[in-house]
Fold:
Amino acid sequence: MSNQYRGEHYHHREVSQADGANQLKDDLEIARQRRSIRHFSDQPVPRDMIEDIIRIAATAPSGANKQPWYFVAISSKSIKRQIREAAENEEKTFYETKITPEWRADLEHLGTDFVKEHITDAPWLIVVFRQDYELTETGERKKNYYMTESVGIAVGFLIQALHRAGLCTLTHTPAPMTFLREICKRPLNEKPFVILPVGYPAEDCEVPVITKKSLEEVSDFL
Ligand SMILES: Cc1cc2nc3c(=O)[nH]c(=O)nc-3n(C[C@H](O)[C@H](O)[C@H](O)COP(=O)(O)O)c2cc1C
Structure:
């Protein structure tokens, strides 16, 4: 064993199988109520809640425990406005010139277009960055591993935590979104991964009618 290894006792959080099974039923019910929303109210969300949600995301597993993520939480109206302008510019070009016919057809049932009012309406934006390599304090580059998988898992934790706390979000990925690095003042080793507006739904908030695949469609048991 490497002489750099240090172990400590694993404190298992014990749950009886009966309680675990019940918990899963409750969690399934809650998970099924989650939807991506695109119409937010201006009801404020305390910063403490956003901090805890980021803390939860940052507990995620990651390749070699490199934790290749960075979260920028934005409540500043002027920064949100800047992000909205830049995102709408990119999205307008995307919808008008870059989108393929197949992609356009796949988006039609969602009713989306280049107008992104959720960016300025939601009280918070969490911009998630993926660190493609580590930059040490002395400017040395160090390798990261499985960055996309790691950040994807962290964002999954984050979305579930938001939902369990009664908050809503949208996974928003304007393409390209490099403008976020400059607006959020992040270094060159980081790539924007996703924008998550966070808040409560507007009173008249609608969501597209969609269905989810069944257990049989998404799994095999061998
Ligand atoms: C990686 C990823 C990127 C997405 N990008 C966008 C986006 O740019 N704009 C948008 O309106 N929705 C986006 N969505 C939201 C999806 O359209 C939405 O999750 C899907 O229709 C299922 O709806 P639900 O989240 O309510 O279950 C994205 C979702 C994921 C997971």
Q: What stands out?
A: The longest helix spans residues 77-98. Residues 35-36, 38, 110, 112, 170-173, 207, 210 surround flavin mononucleotide (CB under 6 Å). The chain has a mean pLDDT of 96. The first strand starts at residue 69 and ends at 74.
